[in-house]
Amino acid sequence: MNITSQMVKDLRDKTAAGMMDCKKALTETNGDMEKAVDLLRQKGLAVAAKRAGRATSEGVIETYIHAGGKLGVMVELGCETDFVAKTDAFREFARDVAMHIAATNPVSISRDEVPESVLTREKDIYIQQAMDSGKPANIAEKMVEGKIEKFLAEVCLLEQKYVKNPDLSIQDLLNEVVGKMGENISIKRFARFQVGVE
To answer: How many other C-beta atoms lie within 10 A of the C-beta of residue 34?
Structure first.
């Protein structure tokens, strides 16, 4: 199939990947736009995996203040070089993450950072619910496991569905940015402030 410059432009607009990467992806998928998008996302994952061990000692602190000034978020993003930290794309990603945190109020960045007390409290509630439903112990146990998995996916920032595009998780978004930037990027920490809420 003949890959036109318009097809390459359309794919670039969808993914923000480089022109040559877009052309190569379209060639490999015989011009299938959806498959090309998936291929570019997979490559982003591969780049992210390769770069995951690198130190992220540069970065930015970005803020988001919701209209009315009663809700604010501060987030620290790390990257490998000062050059990337100063790019518009990196800062835009940081702003998007801060805005997402304002909207979803995650408990932690990843599963291993969820406080044990929070996990124990949720588990106790789910166990009580399972017992009250009168299910056999083995089924109740599976119900509790499923509910804990769902709870963690809802409260861990990296696993949450991105508010601007629910087809992607924050981890997917992060992987795409790592793929585009070509260096390791990490969400280091965040703080969410809301007037009248402790």
So the answer is: 9
33 within 8 A of 67, measured Cβ to Cβ: no
pLDDT tens, position by position, 86-97: 999 999 999 999
Q: Residues of the chain with pLDDT > 70: what percent?
A: 86
In this structure, are strands 71-79 and 165-169 parallel, antiparallel, or unpaired?
unpaired
How many whole angstroms separate alpha carbon 18 and alpha carbon 175? 15
CATH architecture of 115-154: Orthogonal Bundle (1.10)
Q: pTM surpassing 0.85?
A: no
Which burial class, exposed, middle or buried, applies to 80 when counting CB atoms under 10 A from its CB (0-12, 13-18, 19+)? buried
Report whether pLDDT(50) > 60: no
Give the residue-averaged pLDDT of 132-144: 79
E-strand ranges in 68-183 read: 71-79, 161-162, 165-169
Which CATH architecture does the domain made up of 58-109+156-194 adopt? 2-Layer Sandwich (3.30)
